[in-house]
# Entry
Amino acid sequence: MPSPILTFPPMGIDKISTLLARNQSHCRPISLAFGQSDFPIQKYLDLTLQAKDLEKVLGYGDIAGQMSLREKISSFYASTLGVHLPVSQILITDGATGALVLALGLLVRPGSKVIIPAVGYAAYPRIVKMFGGIPISAPLDAEFNLLPDRLPDLITAKTAAIIVNSPGNPHGNIASLEILAEIASFGIPVIFDEVYQLMTFAGDFAPSGTQLSGEHFVVNGFSKSFAVPGLRIGFLIVPPSHAEAAESVKVLLNICPNLMGQLLAERLLKAHQSYLRSCHNFFLATCDRYYVPALRNSQAGFYGIIQLPEGMDSMTAASILAKDYAVATAPGKDFAETDPGFLRVNFTKSGQDVSEGVRRIAEFLAKVNPEHLRSHSLGVSSLSLS
Ligand SMILES: Cc1ncc(COP(=O)(O)O)c(C=O)c1O
# Structure
């Protein structure tokens, strides 16, 4: 019998990248598909390494992560959100992915159910299945947050966890602390995935599961907020009751997390937010220029959502764009069981790529369904898609 993880179809986004690489068009390839910011972090990060720094990172380190980094994370939460987090509750992981795997590994047994957002990060149902669990999709409200009122109908004796992602991928929605508290009030452990927590366009910090009491887990990391996914440094905040077990499982996953990554993570400054705001404004202005319908009320993260015409399959649209227009986007079908009919684009790429990428998407939409663009033309009737 195949492992449950293999019963999932491959991710559309990977296929789209292959199509982009093989595309026969004469255009310069542009990828707006993957979740990596082009923020020039090296300008803000001291990359000078001395022999003494290197010597410190060649042996094994602490299972739960280096104490100095965990202390800095604890102080960071104290100074930004006023939350006191003992370092014993903070474990450094291999990216936020390692934190999700650890949290779900601690909570899920074969046959357990895990409630996940109906449209959300593609890895959730896959990791749940990897542990023999069953993902259960929960509906979202008009702002793309989980609807707490609908959760009691989905909760059963087998429910092992609820995953909340705020700020959310792909929609950039932010759940209020009241919504988070309601979700946390059902006596089921909540895994708050907050990897975009520092990336609000308003420049403040999004409400966090760390501000709530209870047996909950918080996933975070440096890949998104600090634009260094290559360091593979994330962290999991566990409730005190799980701290010991978390360390016992974690040692089996990686013995200790990458020390060089932890050393650099400690040096990072919080400098990403003004970059994000200007990229988001530029993306929306570019969509307006070409009458491309984009989700306007996202508040965080680095993804733009481009709505496709009614009934258009997102994988087909993304494949044509990659093959014929040399622009890669993430198809909405990667984020939900039923195709939500959108393309996700990363708007933190260079202004040139975003502008040209959106122009090509507009050209494609103008060809397949000009009405779709016209209905978003804000009263301007003629299209000038050269
Ligand atoms: C919501 C969400 N959680 C977790 C991750 C994984 O992050 P990392 O690269 O730190 O493993 C991602 C990556 O795209 C994400 O979007």
